[in-house]
């Protein structure tokens, strides 16, 4: 964590605490100063205890693909893999009960000089087919990514699983979302931060109901 960011966060909360305390003293029926002190203290602790992704390095694509791979390989991996597939293929959705446990692999080599960030595999019980989800992550990448994505697609089609159901995701999580993502006829679907949040919320809600 950069020290400068740490100072900015602390400074912001210190100023907020001062203003809120002053307001609380003039409005004792709403919140006592003691209660407010405890609340601000908890908020400050939260800010100074960043998430795993933030601590390791938000700008590293492998951090994000690694977290997703961990979740897909985990207890609720079927729900997450189904949610990803259905986001990318709304006209051909998959039911969780029709899936076997998926497996996720990071840094998968599609062809010589072509390594994609995340590959997810799952078997469909009813059709007997193996399905694949290929995800390329960009955080601060810039420029035109059509050529790279086309190379991924061409390499996959030419490989041993090219004739099996496959969907492609181009995931932007930082400044890369302000650059032009792959566009039709590219097979890659653009996935932005709200999409990722929605996917995780779907799995959280599903697991809570189980």
Describe the 3D structure.
The structure is a single chain. By secondary structure, this protein is of the alpha/beta class. It contains seven helices and five strands. The chain has helices spanning 3-26, 33-47, 52-56, 61-72, 77-88, 146-157, 193-209, and strands spanning 103-111, 114-123, 130-138, 166-172, 188-191. The protein has a five-stranded mixed β-sheet with strand order 1-2-3-4-5. Strand 3 (130-138), helix 6 and strand 4 (166-172) form a beta-alpha-beta unit. Helix 1 runs antiparallel to helix 2 (33-47) and helix 5 (77-88) crosses helix 7 (193-209). The chain is globular and about 65 Å long. The model is unreliable at 1-21 and 23-30 (pLDDT under 50).
Strand order of the largest sheet: 1-2-3-4-5
- Assembly state: single chain
Largest sheet: 5 strands, mixed
Runs with pLDDT <50, length 5+? 1-21, 23-30
- Averaged pLDDT: 78
Count of separate DSSP helical elements:
7
Number of strands: 5
Query: Considering DSSP H and I runs of 4 or more, what fraction of the residues is helical?
Result: 40-55%
- Strand residues, percent: 15-25%
Short description:
By secondary structure, the protein is α/β, with parallel strands linked by helices. The chain has seven helices and five strands.
Descriptors for this entry?
210 residues; alpha/beta; 5 strands; 46% helix; globular; disordered N terminus
